[in-house]
Amino acid sequence: MTGIVLQQGINGIVIGSLYVLVALGLTLIYGVLVQINFAHADIVTLGAFTAYAVTHFLGQSYFAGIAVALAVGAVLGWLVNATIFSPLRDRGNELLPLIATIGVSIMLQNAMLALLGPIPYAFETPYSNLVIRYGGLFLTVQNVLIVVVSSVSIALLYGFMKFTFLGKALRAVAQDRETAGLMGINPNHLIMLTFVIASALAGMGGALLGPVLVLTPFAGTSVIVKAFAIVIIGGFGNIEGTILAGLLVGLIESFTTQFLDPGLIDIVVFALLLLTLAVRPTGLVAEKREENV
Amino acid sequence: MGRQRFWGRSLARSRKLRFLLAVVVIGLLPLAFTGSYWRTNLIVCAINVLLAIGLDFVLGYAGQLNLGQSAFFGIGAYASTLLVIKLGVPFWAAFALGTLGAGAAGALLSIFAVRLRGHYLAIASLGFAVITYQVLLNWISLTQGPLGIYAIAPPPTIALRWLGRIPFTDLANLFYLTAGLTLVVYVLLDRMLRSPIGETLTAIREDEISAASLGINASRWKVFAFAVSSAVAGAAGCFYAPFVGTLVPDAFFVTESFTILAMVIVGGTGTLIGPAVGAILLTLLPELLRSIGDLRLILYGASITLVVLFMPGGLMQAWRLLRSRLYLGAEVP
């Protein structure tokens, strides 16, 4: 019994750290812009397919795949901001960018569906079949890789936001865009930077997700709904909250699969979301700071 | 100014004229299209118009994005069908209960999220759509899951003394029924929006704080708008089930919410006629362009994005622009 609990705990943390990667991008953008990029999901999917193409067609290493997926994500983020968010910024309707990116998401998803078909791709990395056994526990090197890469990126992001000049400038823009502008910070550049960072994380998340999830053009969508739940549970714009909520949702997912029924995952996660909205709409993690990047 | 006076004829009379025109067009359509293929499409149009004006009520007027229309559509369809099949409830009672049930679900959902920004409501409703889909898929003892419910009977035959028996196995009659209901809902929503309710909702959309300073309880009205919108989607579902004859959860996947959203956005939010036109256009256009096949959804996605970017008022804005170009004297509203 303890074995099962530990094993599912590990699985939960693996999937949870992936969710954190995806959700952090959403929360970063929301923190700076108070906007939702619905196409974030498809950047994840495109990242997964990019890594697949690099490893399976070009025969490069998996790490090269991750790097290319990261770059593709960054470029897509730049594009989404330049074509959608930037032109709509001064329209004054908070829902317009969300609606426009829903359109982008439908387009990307169905374009991928037309090109790649609905049949799942088998994304095998050299690490998928390397198994570490310890006691009764079971872990693939791929899983270790996922946790290590996401933890390192999350730590880097955290350090960047906390300690670098650029990170401080970003937080300044998030707190008060106009005042930051008066201090000589160009908000447009920093908003662009936010999109690039957030989408690069999403692309990389996709490359890591590809081998563990069912890789179809809809792979990102199944993740993004949970990512939305995570950012609300953690508090929109709150990095620590998002990390905790992401791991929590990962654990919920693995334990629901083990002890209840996989079909109930979304239902349990959504129940938690509604509970959060009812009890503590600013997120489960106490928000004592005024800043919430 | 002469032209102005000509166009400025009594608005109420022009509305009555338009209503009569709509009745005549609805009456003539099945006579013009006798094939079952086009009659089926006409019914799909009527159902989609219903869904679109329902969404526009909450999105275009109250300014709240409801991404859960697919769920409320599904709740209406499954609730009414199951009531008829499992409990033997008469169709019209099941219709009323399905509509009310969907409305109640919408109200309940919005209570959780109305205190917050529109984004939260959008995501909560999206999550709700995902959950509803999962419930329909996994509650096999009730919904038969992915196998679906088959052989759903059409609405029962109505016997009227002066018209005789009207069987709804006939597609023309079924079209009259769905289009008639759609027209009734349209007129009801239109009346509601022209009453102070419409101004209240618009005030909330424009500025919640100013609205509150005028004594408007924004939360209550958002719940109201959400409930009406969901109930209309539920009503559409009650007709969808006996029209298609089969119910599978996939018909109520989140994508359906986005399809409805595309109709509203393309038509033009904040008007009722716009989304109705948008629904008809986006239903018929893919049928006319058969060769595009599976690219239908790409067309929907592209239309949403392009309209938001370049013509945020949709077809209605395009129409107003065109009219102001044609009649140079008229003002651009």
Could you tell me the number of beta strands of chain A? Answer: 2
CATH class annotation of chain A:
Mainly Alpha
Proportion in β-strands of chain A: under 5%
The two chains with the largest interface, and their residue counts, are:
A-B, 45 and 43 residues
Describe the biggest sheet of chain A?
Answer: 2 strands, antiparallel
Query: What is the string of helix and strand elements of chain B?
Result: HHHHHHHEEHHHHHHHH
Number of helices of chain B: 15
**CATH-derived topology of chain A:** ABC transporter involved in vitamin B12 uptake, BtuC
- What percent of residues of chain A adopt helix (DSSP H or I)? over 70%
Termini separation of chain B (Å)?
16 Å
Our count of domains of chain A comes out at 1
Number of strands of chain B: 2
Short account of what is shown:
The complex is a heterodimer of chains A (293) and B (333). With 293 residues, chain A is mainly alpha-helical.
